[in-house]
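Quiz preparation item.
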């Protein structure tokens, strides 16, 4: 591989404190094809990046996701590496990200921050949130990924081209991970270092608001991959509620008090909950059939070629 075959994509929003050094570091590693997609920074990020020799494109909309989607459409190089502009990732670790791709083992590589992060790189809330989100993701998509929210990732161009992305905000990493799993890409994780953000700049991520959005993205997109999980969660909530009111009704009844309306409500809750499970089973069935059909079409197409 020629280093010019790699495009390094850096989304930035007010990262003047770190962007210059980051571009220098990537150049030092031998990569000079650097695309900065900037969210109209007010602190001169774009000018610094340009002065360091990066190609700077202003994003047309808002949010990290919109920036990434726009930039993906511009890249023609066979390999893409995505990195945040806040100096939390090390340019020299690019080689370990590219390795599985260059050796033909992976289509997409995620830099896993959670095994080797510096003190202070994650707040307690972020760390717990990350673990919960990864656990939730792994159950929903039946995979074993450790750090789906990482901002340091490598792709082949085919992998990028295959992704159907719509999320404009910080849900973009989640959506990328979901799409790679749905498109049956070979995804590998490699451990990377994660440094604290420079004190001179601030994070744009709101742990509660964005964490909630990321959780709902995982859940919402799971409908198409693991419907039993999707409907099962709704069903379980209703059945639990039914068991709760039901226990109350029975205990009171043993004391000689009858709650007619609450009994009706209990039955409705449990019937609705069970029905969700039936939806789940049926959807699973439809999805399996759909996958078999797709597989067949793929094989037929292959035979024709
Ligand atoms: N172009 C662009 N970049 C953004 C936007 N929001 C965040 N970024 C960049 O995305 C990267 C990750 O954001 P950051 O605030 O560090 O989030 P965190 O690493 O998840 O805490 C940084 O390089 C930000 O400058 C945006 O709206 N537009
Ligand atoms: Mg960051």
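Solution:
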């Amino acid at each position: 591989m020629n280093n010019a075959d790699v495009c390094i994509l850096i989304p930035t929003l007010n990262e003047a404190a770190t962007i210059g050094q980051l571009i220098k570091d990537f150049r030092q590693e031998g990569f000079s094809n650097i695309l900065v997609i900037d969210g109209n920074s007010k602190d001169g990020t774009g000018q610094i990046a340009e002065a360091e020799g990066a190609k700077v494109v202003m994003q047309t909309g808002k949010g990290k996701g919109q920036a990434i989607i726009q930039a993906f459409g511009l890249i023609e190089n066979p390999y893409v590496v995505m990195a945040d502009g806040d100096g939390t990732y090390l340019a020299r670790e690019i080689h370990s990200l590219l390795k599985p791709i260059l050796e033909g083992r992976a289509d997409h590589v995620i830099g896993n921050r959670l095994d080797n992060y510096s003190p202070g790189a994650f707040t307690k809330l972020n760390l717990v949130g990350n673990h919960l989100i990864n656990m939730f993701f792994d159950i929903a998509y039946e995979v074993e990924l450790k750090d789906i929210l990482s901002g340091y990732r490598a792709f082949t161009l085919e992998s990028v081209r295959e992704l159907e992305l719509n999320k404009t905000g910080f849900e973009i990493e989640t959506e990328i991970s979901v799409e790679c799993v749905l498109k049956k890409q070979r995804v590998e994780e490699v451990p990377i270092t994660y440094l604290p953000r420079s004190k001179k700049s601030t994070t744009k991520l709101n742990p509660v608001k964005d964490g909630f959005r990321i959780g709902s993205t995982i859940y919402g997109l799971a409908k198409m991959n693991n419907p039993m999980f999707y409907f099962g969660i709704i069903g379980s909530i209703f059945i639990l509620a039914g068991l709760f009111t039901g226990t109350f009704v029975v205990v009171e009844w043993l004391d000689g008090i009858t709650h007619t309306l609450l009994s009706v409500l209990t039955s409705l809750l449990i019937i609705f909950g069970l029905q969700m499970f039936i939806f789940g089973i049926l959807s699973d069935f439809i999805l399996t059939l759909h996958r078999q059909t797709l597989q067949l079409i793929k094989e037929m197409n292959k035979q024709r070629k």
